[in-house]
Amino acid sequence: MNQSNQWDKKFKQEYPFMAFGSLLNAYGQMNQQKPKEIKEFLKDADSIFELAIKLMEKAKSNAEEITNEENPDIDTK
Amino acid sequence: MKTDEILLKYINSDSHERVKGRYWATDIYSILKGHLKPKNFFEKKLIDITGVRNILSGMAFESQLKEVFEKTGVDFKYGDEIKREMKITDEITLVVKPDFEFEKWVLETKYPTKKRQEIPEWYLYQLEAEYRATNKEVKLGIFSYPFNISYITYKPDHKRWSKIVETLVKFHNKLK
Questions:
Q1: A44: Cβ–Cβ under 8 A, 6 or more apart, which residues?
Q2: What is the ipTM of this complex?
Q3: Contacts with B51 (C-beta within 8 Å, 6 or more apart), sequence order
């Protein structure tokens, strides 16, 4: 049964960008005042984006799964 | 009126009047953390549109669950018939009202803005009060969309209860 809720859906939409922003920021700092052609930047950004997705997927797979979700009995009349 | 104005009016016009010596379980955390102070206890705090939307979302889910229970013959109680008034001292009454009550347990529902896998601190005191008031197991029910409810059983803690009593007594004594 698909139990995905609005938080799971939101995570799936946003997870590539979480690490991407941080990595781009680091890239910017590493390359401060270094001349960069736009083509080269776009190529690097593409690689950074792939890396970000890989990192987030690894993080998600390492996150603890809920294995003991409660499902209490509810009495009827 | 615009929709937002209607929503604001709906929530902000419906609040119980505060009375010295009569405190609600839902206020315990605010009192403990100093958000609700003796000097502002009687002031009516208006809830902003974000807060109103969150409250209404929770109300909608709870109301729908109640209807589902009613139409499917679930054996439960709801509303004022499950309200408890606990006498803490001769001067202090704690009012506790879970959302749903079954024969062996009670359910407090929430619709938080973030995914929760553990019970957040700001719910613990209300849940402790519900356990002490009903002497039944208390479960926190967390709503999510599409319609679902996840349950977490609350573990009673006598130290937390002592803290609640101590907090209410101190607060009451400061209230003029």
A1: A27
A2: 0.72
A3: B11
